[in-house]
Write a structure and sequence with these properties.
Elements: H1 3-15, E1 48-58, E2 63-64, E3 67-68, E4 72-77, E5 84-88, E6 98-106, E7 113-123, E8 143-149, E9 154-159, E10 177-181, E11 187-190, E12 212-217, E13 221-226, E14 243-251, E15 256-264, E16 278-287, E17 292-301, E18 305-314, E19 336-342, E20 353-361, E21 367-373, E22 383-391
Antiparallel strand pairs: 1-22, 2-3, 4-5, 5-6, 6-7, 8-9, 9-10, 10-11, 12-13, 13-14, 14-15, 16-17, 17-18, 18-19, 20-21, 21-22
């Protein structure tokens, strides 16, 4: 568990809430300047939730093959076998960096959602075949997203990386990355990253805990989105204003294609007290096709709790900012987006939703969508799965 999540737990105790959180310190920076007309009501038009299929939970700290299940931050499904993959963001608090395998039970005729079954575990391996080091050590990883690639029978996973900052000077520098792994967890390579996403020990590049939380595999593209803004791109979201984060696109061969700005909304509520901690950003994306995606915007405000909204966005027409070091230097057009659903209406209290994947198609023609939560290994939070039927993709 990283120390952002530890701070969340402490704030929960102080506020006597079933929530958690602490944000990276906001730094001064140029305000992004999106071009006029950037938002569009037609972004990813047609994608909508048609039915809520229900909620299911896993037992807290359940054991699978001698490991502790929790921290589920990403998931995906192999459509050929029905096998599901669930990645944990644990970094040796309990066990080494790993992902789980299992099944999701959704009746294809009725859409009845009866549960999630975890049956196996695989350790993520370094190129030399050894496990990754633990939290705060050189070479540590923070697994936050996972996707199955049927073309290569392999897994794409996102690593948020780590770095020291003023509040955590003892943390070793560990670059963020997007890597390939085999179904056995073995290393199969990594995607090249643009220079603007280089992790540093200075006030430039990605902030601590604002690296890759989201990856996607589209028919002809690969994508990864940073959770929050780089130092050069402005401060994290506040109640008064949002923030710009970067979506990076590669072709299926791993070549860099483009980078676009995605505008995260302002905080949905002020923390309590007003100077309390807050943390907001993109916790997952999911490809609809090569141009359209879904995004989870997850916020936590001290004294308030979690708020999560589901958006659809379209990269067509967005400015390529791959070679722009600062988004505030000139106007740009971010991706067009629209609100699909406020997920707080489906579960109370709202949880730390970080995982999202397509499930099987129902006989009605609807596609199923599964959204899951990271419980932070905290007994005041839960590992929760929300299932939906979706039309219009």
């Amino acid at each position: 568990m990283d120390d952002k999540k530890v701070l969340r737990g402490g704030a929960v105790l102080a506020a006597a809430l079933l929530v958690a959180g602490a944000a990276p310190a906001a730094a001064a920076g140029p305000a992004p300047r999106p071009a006029a007309g950037a938002q569009s009501a037609d972004a990813a038009a047609g994608v909508r939730i048609s039915r809520f299929l229900g909620e299911r939970r896993l037992p807290h700290k359940m054991q699978v093959e001698g490991t502790t299940v929790g921290g589920i931050s990403g998931m995906d499904r192999d459509p050929r076998t029905g096998t599901w993959y669930f990645i944990s963001d644990d970094r040796w608090r309990y066990d080494p960096a790993r992902f789980y395998t299992g099944r999701v039970d959704i009746d294809p005729r009725t859409g009845a959602f009866s549960g999630v079954r975890i049956s196996g575990v695989r350790t993520l391996k370094r190129p030399d075949g050894s496990p990754y080091p633990g939290f705060g050590e050189p070479g540590s990883v923070d697994p936050e997203a996972i996707r199955f690639d049927p073309r290569g029978n392999r897994l794409l996973w996102g690593n948020e990386g780590d770095r020291p900052d003023a509040a955590h000077p003892g943390i070793a520098l560990s670059p963020l990355s997007v890597q390939w792994a085999g179904p056995d967890g073995g290393h199969r390579g990594a995607l090249p990253l643009p220079a603007n996403l280089e992790q540093t020990t200075e006030d430039r590049g990605p902030r601590r805990n604002y690296g890759f939380e989201a990856v996607a595999v589209a028919p002809h593209r690969l994508a990864a989105m940073a959770e929050g803004p780089r130092y050069e791109d402005g401060a994290p979201p506040t109640v008064e204003r949002g923030a710009a984060v970067r979506l990076t696109l590669w072709n299926r061969g791993g070549g860099l294609l483009a980078q676009h700005a995605y505008r995260v909304e302002p905080l949905p509520a002020a923390p309590v007290p007003a100077d309390g901690h807050a943390d907001s950003g993109v916790s997952e994306i999911l490809a609809i096709d090569d141009h359209r995606y879904l995004a989870l915007e997850r916020s936590w405000m001290e004294g308030v709790g979690y708020r999560v909204r589901l958006y659809a966005f379209d990269v067509r027409g967005a400015t390529d900012v791959l070679r722009r070091d600062r988004l505030g230097d000139a106007p740009y057009r971010p991706v067009a987006k629209r609100l699909v659903a406020d997920l707080g209406r489906y579960a109370d209290p709202a949880q730390n939703l970080e995982a999202m994947a397509w499930g099987p198609r129902l006989r009605t023609g609807e596609r199923t969508l599964l959204i899951g939560s990271d419980d932070n290994f905290d007994d005041r939070e839960v590992t929760q799965f929300l299932a939906f039927a979706v039309r219009g993709r």
